[in-house]
Amino acid sequence: xxxxxxxxxxxxxxxxxxxxxxxxxxxxxxxxxxxxxxxxxxxxxxxxxxxxxxxxxxxxxxxxxxxxxxxxxxxxxxxxxxxxxxxxxxxxxxxxxxxxxxxxxxxxxx
Length: 110
Description:
The chain has 2 helices and 5 strands.
């Protein structure tokens, strides 16, 4: 019934928001001089692989969208999967309210 359709629509909206945040992250990374490679599947421990050609560094990134309710300058405590921990995946937070990005290491709650 309608309850299932509403749930389906919410799941699509959440996935769509994640897709849009990843696209914005690609642009953010390109603007900051990185080469970027996107995970084309909707699953996996990494959304983006970035290459810093100046410093010859590769970074594995998982983009996290802060919802308007959560985007208050306080970053959520998210647990990385064991695989993400082993791969040293970095979270890149996207704040929808301010249209800005914050690296995990810079998102320190005081």
